[in-house]
Design brief:
Strand 4 and strand 5 form a beta hairpin. By secondary structure, the chain is α+β, with helices and mostly antiparallel strands. Helix content is 50%, strand content 13%. The C terminus is likely disordered. It folds into 4 domains: 87 residues; 39 residues, no CATH class; 56 residues; 88 residues, no CATH class. Helix 1 packs antiparallel against helix 2.
Amino acid sequence: MALEATLAVQSEIDRRIAESERHHQLRITRARYESDAARRRFMLVDPANRLVAAGLEAEWNTRLSELAMAEDELARFRSKMQDQLTDDMRQRIMALCSDLSLLWADPAGIDRERKEILALLIEDVTVLEDHGQLTAHVRLRGGACRTLKMTRSRIQPKKQTLPDVVLRIDQLLEVGDDEIVAERLNAMGIRNWRNATFDKHQIGTIRKSHNLCSHAERRRINGYGTAGQLAAHYNVTRTTIRYWAQNGLLERSSCGERHRWYYRIPEGVDIVKGYGGPYAQPPRIVPRPICHSSEPAPRLDGKSAGWRDRP
C-alpha cells in the first residue's frame, strides 16, 4: 500500500510537471509569434525613414531575446525534471517489489548490494531494550512503519591468549625482553588467537594484561642493573663496570647476543675502587658492612629502597 501511494503521488507530480511544460511551450509560441510580427514590420518599413527603421529593428531584437530566454527556461526545466519515472520504470519497480525476497536470497548477491537495498528502503530505525528484549521500530521511506521484537543475543566472549601460551611467555621473559619472546614463540610455531605471528607489542599487551613482570623488572628484582646504573652508583665509567665484570668482580647476565648485559654485585660483598699513583691499588672485593640503621640502604637506580629491595 505504501508503494502504491508513493506511485500515486509521483503520478500527480508528473501531471503538474506536464502542465508546467505546456505553460513554457505557450510562452515560447507567444514569443515566436511576436518575434515574427516584429520581423515583418521591420521588413515592410521604408529604408529612407531611418528613425522608424531603427526603432523597429530594436523591437525585433528585443523579441528575439525574449524568445531565446523562453527556450532556455524550457531546456533548464526539462533537464531538472528528466529523472521522473516513466511508465516502464513504474512497471519495473512494481515487479522488483514482488521479487525483492528472491533478489535478497540470491546467492550471487553480495552484502554490499544488500546494504544498498536497505539504505534505499529504510528511513530510520529506533531500537529499545528491556531486560534483554529488543524492540525495533523501522520507518520505511514510503511512510510505512514496522515493529520487530527479538531477544538479544549473548555477547561473544572475548578471545584471549591460551593459558599455556601465557605460561610459555612467562618462562621466556626470564630469558629476554618482549622482542626476544616474540621471536622464540614464532620459531616454535606458536600463533596468537588470530592465528598470526607475535610481535613485541602483542607480547607487551599480554604481559600487562596478565600482570607479568618484564625482563628488566625481573633482573632488577634479582639484583641486576645496567652498566649505567652501577657506574652512577660507584662514580665510575661504564667501561670500568665492564672491566670489573670481565675480572670476576661483578656477576653479569645477558638476554641475548644483540642485547645489553646486566650486572650484579655478589651477595654479602661490596667493591672498593682502585686508584693509581705510586701506591696504586686495584679494585677489590670486601665484605659488606652490616648496617644496623633502620633506614634502608640507597638503591643503585636512585630510588629509596636498597638495590635488591631488602628491608
